[in-house]
Amino acid sequence: MPERTEVQVRPGREADLQALTDLYNHYVRETPITFDVEPLTLEQRRPWLLSHPEDGPYRLLVASQAGRVLGYATSSPFRPKAAYATSVEVTVYCAPDAGRRGIGTLLYASLFEALAGEDVHRAYAGIAQPNEASGRLHARFGFRPIGVYREVGRKFGRYWDVAWFEKELGSERSR
pTM of this prediction? Predict the structure, then answer.
């Protein structure tokens, strides 16, 4: 019987670009979870990867097991204007065959632990509807619903709502 290896969470790196792009493109092609409508190339995805350094408020954490990427979580700028600097938008994506294994929970726990020392006051998450699993994950981490953008995105020939959720991160410097 093969030895089971633990799932590791670590910062994303250039060597992950292909796996991260493939994972994301699954959601582009198959689901309304992202509003990208065409798969992205490695060249298109590279700036996104490079915009998430190993430290600071904008992180990319990767869950892997035995060298295989199972998912990732990010914190990114919420909006480009300076007054939004202490707010981040967060997201998590899991490989299609890695769902319901606690990977999303592990990634978010690691992300919020990493953000605890940063000057970040709030985290926001936009979830295309319906998506009960993502809603449960965000509720587990203390996100609360703050509103819905109705029919804000069109994909697969129909309109989709996006529910917005907010979480206080508690940075003392941001108060």
Answer: 0.92
